[in-house]
Design goal:
Helix content is 18%, strand content 44%. The protein has helices at residues 2-24, 35-41, 117-125, 131-138, and strands spanning 51-62, 65-76, 80-87, 90-98, 101-106, 111-116, 148-155, 158-165, 168-174, 180-186, 191-195, 198-201, 204-207, 209-213, 218-228, 247-249. The chain is globular and about 65 Å long. The longest helix is centred in the first third of the chain and has 23 residues, at 2-24. The chain is an alpha+beta fold.
Length: 259
């Protein structure tokens, strides 16, 4: 009878293994052929600008510290921006980027920093992003989809699309109105880009809020006024630093962690 008992144990063990295997395998929604069209359709109706003047409320966050201030923005495709900021807890300051060179000037402290753009953004915000990519986001451009589509999940009309390229994963979330709400990147760069509800402009819909976050820091801009595609003189992107103020490396401008 021992062989019957052994056979029964083997059968039960096999059933348990199959159940565990089924439970551990996530259900993957079948990807319909129109998903790629959906990814590209999110560009429709969105404002993609050549230049921008804007006013808004900004919040920087780093571990242990948050800073909020009112700001005025200028941006011009492909890689120019200027911001003037002021508010409680943050001295009046100016920052600009032209091509891949970034500068920060704090008049009240007579401090002037400059350096390579991506290094400066990482030092200031904890977000590794090039100045050109930041300008593109300000002007309403959406990053290109990366990798092969592996999954689409639909819940209450909200579509979540997952793409994979080697070890890098990109997840797009599109609401029932077809508005792209967020892009989450995992892999070489763990970055989340969030877009607030659309606001109407003469050239299309523009996000009322733009947020970027990583484990090291976050930046959120809530726009109050947006003036798209207005001509901006080149001189408006410049920063006038008085003679005698020495330039420091942008890496030393870790203003959000108390240095």
């Amino acid at each position: 009878m021992s062989w019957m008992r052994n056979s029964l144990l083997v059968s039960v063990f096999g059933i348990l293994l199959s159940l565990v295997g089924c439970a551990s395998q996530p259900k993957v929604s079948q990807v319909p052929p129109e998903v790629e069209e959906l990814l590209h359709s999110v560009h429709l109706g969105r404002a993609q600008l050549t230049s921008l003047k804007a006013e808004g409320r900004v919040e920087f966050r780093r571990p242990g510290r948050a800073v909020r201030f009112h700001a005025w923005f200028l941006a011009e495709f492909p890689s120019k921006f200027f911001v003037e900021a002021g508010g409680f807890g943050f001295p009046v300051s100016q920052a600009n980027a032209i091509e891949n060179h970034i500068r920060l000037y704090i008049p009240a402290k007579a401090l002037h920093y400059e350096g390579e753009g991506e290094t400066g953004m990482a030092s200031l915000l904890g977000i590794r992003i090039s100045t050109q990519e930041w300008v593109s986001l300000l002007l309403g451009y959406i990053p290109e989809p990366k990798g092969n589509i592996t999954k689409m999940h639909v819940r209450r009309g909200v579509k979540t699309i997952t793409m994979k390229d080697g070890k890098n994963v990109q997840v797009w979330k599109i609401n029932r109105s077809g508005w792209l709400e967020s892009i989450r990147e995992k892999g070489d760069r763990n970055l989340v880009i969030r877009y607030g509800r659309p606001m109407s402009t003469p050239v299309g819909s523009y996000p009322s809020r733009l947020s970027l976050s990583t484990s090291e820091g976050a930046l959120s801009v809530k726009f109050r006024k947006v003036f798209p595609n207005e001509p901006i003189p080149s001189s408006h992107f410049s920063i006038d630093v008085p003679p005698g103020i020495a330039s420091r490396a942008i890496e030393r401008a870790e203003i959000l962690i108390g240095k």
